[in-house]
Each structure stands twice: as structure tokens, then as C-alpha cells.
Amino acid sequence: MAHIVILGAGYAGLGTARKLAKIAPEGTTIDLIDRNTKHVESIQLYRVAAGTAQADDISLDIASVIPDNVNFIQATVSKVDYENKKVEFEDHAEISYDYVVLSLGFRSENFGMEGADKYSYKLQDIPTAEKIYQVINSNIRDYKQTQDPNDLNIAVCGAGFTGIELLGELIDTAKVLKAKYNVPEINITSLEMAPQILPMFDSELAQYAYDFLSKNGIKILTGAKIKKIEQNAVVYTTGDSDEEQRVYANSIIWTVGVSGSDVIKNSGFDAKRNRIVVTDYLNVEDHPEIYVLGDDSASMDPQSGRPLPTTGQLAQAQAAVAAVNIAAAINDAPQKKFVYKSMGTVASLGPNHGIIEMTSPHIKLKGHLASLAKRASFEKVLFGVGGVKGLKKV
Questions:
Q1: pLDDT per position as a tens digit, 72-126
Q2: Which residues are catalytic?
Q3: Cα–chain-centroid distance for residue 24?
Q4: DSSP label at 360?
């Protein structure tokens, strides 16, 4: 019978595995492979970076939430040999497949920015999130000895989802650390190239988020074009001017953008920013046995003609359809087109505030109600990847 190999146990990978376990023909072998033994709720990484959550708070043991007919293998993927239908690993013997799912997640993208890798801290996984909090905490702790004002300055590059949710969480973190180490005011600055933060929201909600953050001491610079990162400063220009300005900080956090896994590039796929354009059925046109989901896929929006934004919600929706299509392919049956209907967009602004925009019906919420909606959304995600066991994390 068929051998299905699922690479990556994120939202898309786990969702596909759990669905296939129910609908795949009897005798199908399903291997779920990840380099880690735990699934990380990546939409909550900002909390670890701000020190308001521990790694275990946003992680699930993969083996404990997958069905018995799914085999979990801990291994690090190096390359997909799609011509010979094999997956190669850094630390495991190669594995052949009949169908493969690429759902290896994202990596932080620096867009070639000078100094970004050397002098800023990217947020992309548990180790990098923990490092960010370690740097913030140690700089503020050491201020009394160093008397370096930059130890009390935090700069966050990028004001999309990740940047804004981190900023919201840092409001309370700054208060806690200020009191803990008895230091002067902690200064937090956000730099965003676009004229508006959170462009995925309507202007009213984006303005609410801007006003809330500003009222709570966050300085937001929009229209700030970052030119380079220095050892203790973010260098930027504004408008049409070439005059360089600086935000000085010893804690510089990079949340500007992401791309798909480097495995995509290393395997020789035709891709942009490590994202493969998929068909309406979520597979690769020239290799229909390859399904690509989540951050590694460019699933096109028929209305805009642009790739759909990669979110946890999208990944879970793709997983449900991909599993159905793989089962159909095994049975030589017609496959189902992927049609995406977003349920809405939600962003937290700290533990008790947020904004949310629902699509059908069109509803906008802000403040505490939106925070409750964010929690409900998170619980739904947890149930999707971990079932009842996943809900034990909340």
C-alpha cells in the first residue's frame, strides 16, 4: 500500500497526519517527521520572547497527540530528491515515499540587510525566543553597573503581526523588569517601513492598536526605512530623505519578515523566498505526489492573484484538504479544490487587549473582548493540532 511521508509537525503537518489517520485506506503507512519532539505553537512565540510564557507553555509533545497509526520519526531533513521520490536527512537513513507533504515551517528573512544577522535577534523558534528575553533581561539587569542608557532601550524592527504582538506583551514586561531591577524608564521603539502598522486590518482597528501602544509608552515610527543594523542602533531614513537617523538600543529584535524552509531551496524546487506555487489541489503541478502546505506554499488567491498570507489558520485549512486529496489520489478518485475562506484576523495587544476583524459576518472588536476572542481562537488551533490533549495546554 501507499507510503505517505509528512515533513514537519507544525500546524499543517500535524493537521494532515491526524486527518489522514482517519481517512487513509487501510494498510497505508503514515510517517510524520520533525527535527524536534515537540510541536511549538509558533503564534505564541512572542510571549516566550517577552518572558511572559515558558517554552513548555506553548509546546505539545508530538508523540502524545498523534493517532496510533501515525509513526513519528525525529530527524532533520536536508533535501527532498523529488525525481527519485526520496527524502534525505542529516541524521537518519533516507526514506522513500509515494506521497510527501512539505510543511517544514518558516525561517526569519533578513532581506540581505547589513548587520541584521550580526546585531539583531530574530524571532523564529523557541531558542531564538528564549535568547531575546535573556538579552532584554540581562541588559536591564546590568544597567546599574554599565550606566549605558542603551541597556534600557529596546528596538523592534517590523510592525506586522509578530512585531505588534511582541510590543503589546513587552508593555507589562518592561514594568516588571523596571521594578525588579529598580532602574529608570525602559524605552521601547517600533520601526515600520509602511505608513500604517498591521496593514491586514482596517484603518480603524490599526489606529486603535497604534493609539493603545502609544498610550502605554511604545514609540512607533512608521515610514521608517531601515538601512542597516549597527552594534547598538537601527539606522533608518524617512520619506524621500537620504539623511540617516538612528534608534539606539542594546536589545534589537528583528520581526520584519519570513520565508519558507531552506530545504525547499536545497532541494532545487522552483520557488520564491522558499515558497512553492501550488495547484488548486495544493500539490506541485509537475509532481502531483508532492503536497506543499503552510509557510512553504504559495497558495494563490484567485481574487488578488497573490499568494495567501501564511497563517496558522491557513495551514490548518490546507491540511484538511490535502489529507482528503492524498486519500483520494491513493484511491484513484477525484480530488477537491482548495477554496480558502478566512474566518477573520486577530492580534493581541498584551494579555488583556487586542483587535479582531471577522469576515462573515463582518464584525470588529477591540479591547478586552478581542482578547477573549484571541484566546478562543488559540484554543481552536490547539484542538486542531492536538485534539482534547491539546486543550490541556490552556
A1: 999 999 999 999 999 999 999 999 999 999 999 998 888 889 999 999 999 999 9
A2: 165
A3: 29
A4: T
